[in-house]
Design a protein that fits this description.
Elements lengths: L2 E6 L4 H11 L3 E7 L2 H14 L4 E5 L5 H15 L4 E4 L15 H29 L2 E5 L2 H5 L5 H21 L5 E6 L5 H9 L1 H9 L9 H12 L11 E4 L5 E2 L1
Parallel strand pairs: 1-2, 1-4, 2-3, 4-5, 5-6, 6-7
Antiparallel strand pairs: 7-8
Helix pairs in contact: 1-9, 3-4, 4-6, 7-8
Length: 249
């Protein structure tokens, strides 16, 4: 029986690259997001290019009832959950801290931190059955204090704290929980580069290979390793991906 991975925000960007990596490694895929058209296009491409089944479900992670629906439909179709990857995140990146409104701040916390919490909580019973894995996406924005990323960084650092506690609580259930901090050229990062070129240049200089990671090969590959039996002993870690050069804990 094929293993099953849920990838939030899996219809585009980093999430889609991760979905490609898992689809190419004999997983059935569940992708979620807020835009049906994006998800359906991703489903068509994944099923066309890989021997896999893809379940696409419109859901917003901040809404626990919608998350419950995702889990219910996943179990109904595939009868198991082996890996949960919390990738979905919205934010007002590129906006300075003093310019943030409460609504701006809540956008990042609701979509990222609450979304991650809801999916982890609802997936737990099924991950316990499969001795599964949780891979949450954090960010160097929080680790290194990246300019104009305050609400985004706050959400991502909250996710890191949540992940560490879950790793401790769920270790006895043989569920490993880790964070990765990817650096991939996304629309948000492109916007940040345009608005803060000096900060961008300083960031790229710090990457030994002088390039950002590839969503499928580098980020997806790391997720595959963390979800594998070879990494079953790794839990409670934050892995920062500094381009293709590899890992810096």
């Amino acid at each position: 029986m094929k293993k099953v991975v849920i990838i939030t925000g899996g219809g585009k960007g980093i999430g889609y690259g991760i979905a490609e990596a898992f689809a190419g490694s004999n997983y059935n895929i569940v992708i979620t997001g807020r835009t049906e058209k994006t998800l359906l296009e991703a489903k068509r491409e994944l099923e066309k290019n890989y021997q896999t089944e893809v379940l696409s479900i419109v859901a917003d992670g901040k809404n626990e009832n919608e998350v419950k629906k995702v889990i219910k439909e996943t179990i109904s179709k595939f009868n198991r959950i082996d890996v949960l990857i919390n990738n979905a995140q919205a934010s007002k990146s590129g906006k300075m801290l003093i310019e943030h409104t409460d609504e701006d701040f809540a956008l990042a916390i609701d979509s990222g931190l609450y979304g991650t919490f809801h999916y982890m909580r609802e997936c737990y019973p099924y991950l316990k059955e499969t001795h599964g894995s949780v891979i949450n996406l954090a960010s160097g924005a929080g680790l290194f204090g990246r300019i104009a990323e305050s609400s985004y960084a706050a959400a991502k650092e909250g996710i890191r704290g949540l992940s560490r506690v879950a790793a401790t609580e769920w270790g006895p259930d043989n569920i490993n929980v880790n964070c990765i901090c990817p650096l991939v050229m996304t629309e948000e990062l492109a916007k940040w580069r345009q608005e803060y070129p000096e900060a961008y240049n300083n960031t790229i200089k710090g990457i030994p290979m002088n390039r950002f990671g590839d969503a499928k090969k580098d980020i997806g590959g790391t997720c595959l390793f963390l979800a594998s039996g070879a990494a079953s002993y790794i839990s409670g870690e934050t892995i920062t991906l500094q381009g293709a050069s590899g890992l810096r804990p």
